[in-house]
Structures
1.
Amino acid sequence: MSENDPSDNRLNPLRRAIDNIDSQIVSLLSNRQKQVNRIVAVKKEYNLPVYHPAREEDLISARRQQAADAELDPDFVEEIYRIIMRRSRIEQTGKMADASVRPGATVLIVGGRGEMGRYFASRFSDAGYIVRILDRDDWDRADALCEGIDLAVISVPIDVTVRTIEDIGPLLPKDAVLTDITSIKKTPAEAMKRAHEGPALGLHPLFGPTTSSLDKQIIVSTPVRDEAACRWVTEQLSAWGSIIVPSTPEEHDEIMAIVQSLRHFATFAIGRFMEQKKVPIKRTLAFSSPIYRLEMGMVGRLFAQDPALYAEIIFASDSRRKLLKDYIESLGQTMDMVENGDREAFVAEFRRISAWFGPFGEQAIRESSFLIDKLIERF
Ligand code: NAD
């Protein structure tokens, strides 16, 4: 193109106008961030959580409406805002890391040299708590380590959690909060009640130690005794960005059997079957529908992690084993339909189950379509 190309003459001022708008967008984002920083200061002062779902949904609705009025696609504007808000929460969470609900309190992490123990030890320590560690070889100093503590977090493997609670309980100051983070809650809750007469609380973080930010990470909380005295612990976790979901130990265990045990068992079984059949994974991915790719993402992800953790979850209790047997029985019934060539029964069963899922079907289509679109966009 020559210097005096007529199209350039017309395009250049338009491009400059776009550059100018883009530069204003970045300045506005910077201004927005400064306001967020002011909010962090206030939230820190009042120990308020980073995540405020109602505020975020109001903001999205208002911007969607504005987009529609301005003849922009509301979904496009919502996507941009979801990114801005997540970024903002991560920034806030980072700045809240040193926010302490109980400045100067002492926290003992039992199993503090393990993965989750180290994770929480550094969180508490960054927030200015005094952190002590009691691991497997430190029991001869247990009395001294327990002296004057405000919180004991049991972060040992599931199979020694109850025994550890029983061992530590009698050594704790009466008003110290006792909590555990294991992935079953009923038997540890019973043990805490027996072993410690002070405040106690079950916690289950639904994330692993590689999580970089606590932003929107869920922690199930199951109060055991004296909820009021335990509140500062959950307030601390929400100040770091996590979402606390209150439950009972019974409800937690029932739901987790489905969310973790059944889910991981089924994923393990598919991976195992693929290995037995020596499926050429790479080649299948070249032929894959997006949903297969998504599914294989979940299967591959499981086998890239620590087997002990999954064994712990799947083998956790008799009731979990019973649930998995029921699942296998149900698989057998489904296979019978296939074996008998009973398409009608299959279709009738499909319709019945679809009615049972009800409005969740629409939500599932919406959420999985979002993931599939992202997958296609990126890979
Ligand atoms: P880990 O094996 O990495 O750590 C366990 C620690 O406990 C080790 O340092 C070990 O030496 C110590 N320990 C064992 N027996 C002990 C005893 N009798 N006294 C004191 N210390 C003892 O395990 P982890 O992944 O950190 O898991 C710890 C707990 O967190 C488990 O109950 C698990 O269910 C729960 N959890 C783990 C995850 C995860 O993704 N890793 C997520 C949520 C909850």
2.
Amino acid sequence: KPLPFGQLRTNHMFLMNYSEGEWRNPRIVPYGPIPLSPGAMCLHYGQTLFEGVKGFKHDDGEIYTFRADQNAERLNHSADILCMPQIPVDLQLDALHRLIDVERDWCPSMPQSSLYVRPFMFATEDALGVRPSREYIYCIMLSPSGAYYSGGFSKAIRLLVTQKYHRAVSGGTGTSKTGGNYVASLKPAEYAHSFNAAQVLYLSADNSTIEEVGSMNHYHVLKDGTFIIPEFNDTILRSVTSLSVLELGDAGVIKARQEVIRIADFLEGIQNGEIVEAGGFGTAAVVSPVGEYVFEDGSVIKLNDGKVGEHSKKLYELY
Ligand code: COI
């Protein structure tokens, strides 16, 4: 039976408190409930953020995290947007390494599995004014996990192209990993499920360009093998996986670049054979091929006969 995503826990977690302008009392404690006042500000106004990192067991028996420094920097980017305190990158990495060291036996080693690391921060001050909290908790928990989509890499998913829901607006919180961006995706996901799709493909607020999928960035592949990722703007989350693909492009290992992608051009590209594969990039999703797009009128467009394509496969194996 494959490992589920994000269901299992390990025995310990990392905790640290913020008050009077300082991070205090870093500690590793047994995994368990955290006391919280009913007036804790995270519960009322959603001052929360999270990250996702993966640790992999390599042949030398050691656990390697995938670019955790990038996630630590992105956490600080989210914190800035959400008026939450910064955590020095070195402090975040030290916490993560110490916790993984204690829990090293929990890292799975079967294909498509990893030790999923979930750092998060939330506002704990007991106050009801709408303003930034003066107190926070930073926590890291671990989850031995399998693939995010239950079919794993080998099964291409279906996305619903919707004009009904939008993920974020310019000037909003779209580039931060805050809970609010994810609760906003639940209704669209239910709507997607009613079309037998796993998720929605979000378009820009004016429905003209491709944004992202919510749990991952979007990509497509041209017939010459070039990976195209939507140009980042202030409504698309900067996926560390996408950044890594673009860096592989810069280094000449693969062909990859970013573009503003009009949905009309994308669909035309599929019809005329210029676009041969598509999918999503994310920490949890890794490389998740998309085989079908369904539309609100019920029509369906297939890519690569609905199957995982060779370019996506090669990239996944490179990862
Ligand atoms: C990730 O870790 O890739 C995430 O964005 C969280 C995911 C479960 C939606």
